Amino acid sequence: MSIKIGLVGNPNSGKTTLFNNLTGSMQYVGNWPGVTVEKKEGRLKNFKDAIVVDLPGIYSLSPYTLEEVVSRNFIINEKPDVIINIVDATNLERNLYLTTQVIELGIPVIIALNMIDIVEKKGDIFNIEKLKEITGCEVVEVSALKGKGTNEVAKKAIEVATKNDNCNRLFKFTDKVESIINGIEDLVKDTVPNDKLRFTAIKLLEKDEKIDVDLTNQTKLIIEDIVKKTEKDFDDDTESIITNERYSYIENIVKTLYLKKSIVKISISDKIDKVATNRWAAIPIFLVVMFLIYFLAVSTLGAMGTEWVNTVLFGEWIPDLAEKGLTAINSASWLNSLIIDGIIGGVGSVLGFLPQMAILFLLLALLEDVGYLSRIAFILDKVFRKFGLSGKSFIPMMIGTGCSIPGIMASRTIENENDRRITIMTTSFIPCGAKLPIIALVAGAMFNDSAIIAFSAYLLGITAVLISGIILKKFKAFRGKESPFIMELPSYHVPNFKNIAMHTWERIKSFVIKAGTIIFAAAVIIWFASNFSWSLRMVQMDESILASIGKIIQYIFVPLGFGDWKSAVATILGLVAKENVVNAFGILYNIGDVSQAGQEIWNVLPYTALSAYSFLVFNLLCAPCIAAIAAIKREIGSSKWMWITIGFQTALAYVLAITIYQMGLLFGGTFTVYTIPAMLLFVGLIYFIVRPTNKRIRLNEGVNNV
Amino acid sequence: MFKFIIDNIGTIIVSIILLTLFVLALVKIIKAYKKGKCIGCSCDCDKCKYNKKD
């Protein structure tokens, strides 16, 4: 018999950690709410007939955001055989609010009481027997993080699902509300199955528009009348009446469940927060922390690793081995060139940055695991709000530091459609892992492994997000009040090294898989197109297919300071995957043949420091890779908005890059034919930033707010 | 013809291996593209094959 188990709980209550324990999966566990935005399935360990479904976190069964809809639809429409309701014992009131609703669904429920070890550590007492008695559900103590109680939860889930053992203690509202609910139940009992009757009646009373029930017009009118009458009698809207009654009930039962023995004192976490989230110190601390991360990842530790990989592994060992092997089999010269210049030069030059990337991912995972990254969203909320965005937009951006695609998908946690659209349009400004090789290349080759240059790339991403926020919010399509940002900050804790290692490994693995597929395929194509002419004859690179294409495109980039065909081609190839920028350089500049030490191999690039930085700015901010563009289209919901996003990002990248390059030249005393166009574009950008909002839009908003 | 094959056997074998790897990589890319996914991406989506580890 196949059993379906649904994991339901509040955001950041430990569902995915428990899911990984139950199934042996390695799903990404984030230390902030909203990490899971789609349901994920896995088979229960030691019981392969049972499927466990990890659902996005929800606070109630009245969904507001897209990922909350995923959870509710699954629970109601797919009806799992048993629900494991994960309750965070340290946040009892809010977690039990969901529990009272889940029990009403008529599906067997087990309560997995998570973080009970923290309660015990505080010296507080939790009466588990009482919780069993009140809810009528099986209650199991777990510590998802430490893997305690996992087997027991799994065993109980199977037992309860097999017996179809429902929790028999439904939460009772006051008599007056109960009689109203009973009245609605009588009205809909012919169209709604018996087990969903109470839940549906409550949702109809709450005016839940998303509830799927087929009623006659007459019944709908009667229910509308009941709702109106109830609201008049209680002088409140029905949703609030239901919420208030639930919370009053929960408040009372919590008194009997939880005995606070500990004297309320400031925890270590609170003490750290007093400094880390202090209104004056928070931003400087954040900047110092991020600088240190880039300092370690790109300049010091990471640079040492990269130097070894470039000099020894891809500079000597692999090319020597390949050359000896190819000579031994007497291979043709074109094949030698393809393997050494094309594949080793291209793929090797990208993989050369793996140590820097690994350290960056490791440090970011560490910051997230200890709980600091979620504070950054909180800290930046104040800054973002001034620019028309909310801290909620920062979570997708933080997730996007690995790959923009999950970042773009994480925008589903934003309920305001306009804010969500802006977040989707700007998430890829924050450098993803694939852009790190470009950052490390420019910082390493042109700026002597400068941590400031690498860190500036990150700041540039945030600046681009803020500028975009100001510009876009002035257009009618994006106007509206910013979403309120309410976020529960997890307590700081000692890092879980397994979690950190898993998270870092997932990101590195994804990079290596890309190197073996898309970067390898691109390397072969780049090598072919840079060594053959249109008539398919092997020629000098300057007469190749790639050169002929690059020489047409290059003029677009002349004002930005990198108007040579190789840079133009590398930039365009970055649209396939951003790693291809470095891949193309590796092949086009014959890195495989250059046997100098470390980053010096990149000294062949035809850049000045200024043009290199302009190249970096443009490639970081212009349209992302094809896969991210597809994710933008999927999440934003239309081709029109996808093209607007690509156009906006590329235009902003162009304006910033031309401004930096031409103004840089001007400060150095060089006036070019592009200086005035650059100034005009810059003035245009400033105009879009400072221009007042259209009066008509403001008036309309005023009317709407009234 | 036979002599050509014997003389260039190394080149032919390595070329076939590389061509196979190239085609496999392309197939993987196209499959991922059809799913709307980035190769190797560990994105948070139940449709993504990289998330199906059971």
Features:
heterodimer; A: Rossmann fold; Helix Hairpins; six-stranded mixed β-sheet; two-stranded antiparallel ribbon; 8 strands; 61% helix; 5% strand; B: 54 residues; mainly alpha; 2 helices; rod-shaped; disordered C terminus
N- to C-terminal distance of chain A: 57 Å
The termini of chain B sit apart by 51 Å
Q: How much helix, percentage-wise, in residues of chain B? A: 55-70%
What is the topology, as strand order, of the major beta sheet of chain A?
2-3-1-4-5-7
Count of alpha/pi helices of chain A? 30
Shape of chain B: rod-shaped
**Global geometry of chain A:** elongated
**Number of discrete helical segments of chain B:** 2
Count of the domains of chain B: 1
Radius of gyration computed on alpha carbons of chain B = 18 Å
β-sheet strand percentage of chain A:
5-15%
What low-confidence regions of chain A span 5 or more consecutive residues with pLDDT below 50?
593-598
* Largest protein interface, residues of each chain: A-B, 53 and 34 residues
Number of DSSP strand runs of chain B? 0
Rg calc of chain A: 29 Å
What percent strand of chain B? under 5%
Strand tally of chain A, please? 8
Structure description:
The complex is a heterodimer of chains A (706) and B (54). Chain A has helices spanning 15-23, 66-78, 92-103, 116-122, 128-135, 150-163, 175-188, 197-205, 217-234, 238-257, 268-276, 282-299, 301-328, 333-351, 354-370, 372-386, 394-399, 404-409, 417-426, 436-447, 451-473, 497-531, 545-557, 565-573, 580-588, 609-621, 626-636, 639-667, 675-690, 695-705, and strands at 3-9, 40-43, 50-54, 82-88, 109-114, 125-126, 138-141, 258-259. In chain A, the strands form 2 sheets. A 6-stranded mixed sheet of chain A has the order 2-3-1-4-5-7, with helices on both faces. A two-stranded antiparallel sheet of chain A has the order 6-8. In chain A, 61% of the residues lie in helices and 5% in strands. Residues 593-598 of chain A have low confidence and may be disordered. Chain B has one domain (2-51). Helix content of chain B is 59%, strand content 0%. Chain B is built from 2 helices and no strands. The longest helix of chain B has 26 residues, at 9-34. Chain B starts with a helix and ends in a 20-residue tail after the last helix. Mean pLDDT of chain B is 75; it is low at 46-54. The interface between A and B is large, with 53 and 34 residues.
